Amino acid sequence: MSRNVCLLAAALAVSCVCSLSAADARKLVWSDEFNGTVLDTNRWNRCKQGKSDWNRHMSTRADLVEVKDGALVLWGVVNKDTQADSRPFLTGGVQSQHKGLMGIGKVEIRVKFEDHQKGAWPALWMLADNPDEKGRNWPWAGEIDIVERLNGDPFVYQTVHSGWTYVKKHEKDPPHGGKAPIRNGEWNIYGMEVTENALIWSVNGVETFRYPKTDCGDPDQWPFGKPFYFLLDMQLSGKWVGEVDISTLPVKMYIDWIRVYE
Description:
Elements: H1 3-24, E1 28-32, E2 45-46, E3 65-68, E4 71-78, E5 89-91, E6 93-95, E7 101-102, E8 105-113, E9 120-128, E10 143-148, E11 155-161, H2 163-167, E12 177-181, E13 187-194, E14 198-203, E15 206-212, E16 228-236, E17 251-261
Antiparallel strand pairs: 1-17, 2-6, 3-4, 4-5, 4-17, 6-16, 7-16, 8-13, 8-17, 9-10, 9-16, 10-11, 11-12, 13-14, 14-15
């Protein structure tokens, strides 16, 4: 190879590295590496019981949320004390309302799911930290589902909800959700980037779905870009995922870290 060709190749290589570095350069705003032994209550609250499918079985029982061996472990278990609590099973989850937020920026979460648990519905998602400009809460203020996984599926669902999609029924204008393959039984990194004009999902660094801001003229189509908080929870049962086979419990979701950039 001639000297000129070598110099050109070296220049191109440096140019590519610089371009990639510039494109990937982000400021880490906050993170939780879950390296301790207790949940950081300056960042997280426990998810409480509610009336929706996702939180119907949520419990603040201490053993359902662990920080252990460098990971946050969220449990779904058979309830062995139905006299104290009549629910057949219990789940653990955390949320960062008014504490750990993201507006315009990107989050990545490294997670491992267990497989073959019938009725398991682990989720990583985001809700608006405050009502919208008209004082309305969900769905008008927005919901971003980074990942929902059903049973032992080798893929995850990535979805957005708002007054535009849920109330006004514009689920295909533009499409409000997609699916992405994952490595079953292994660690995967799930990403969500919020820009001025799009929500961008990724799995292991590869873009998998995009929801754009449109010029439809209705502000309800785009309630995003303002501060949202995170929910990380091990859910069980519901109309979507189906009934739980309790013989497959307990089930766990492992979260290695969450990192938020701007």
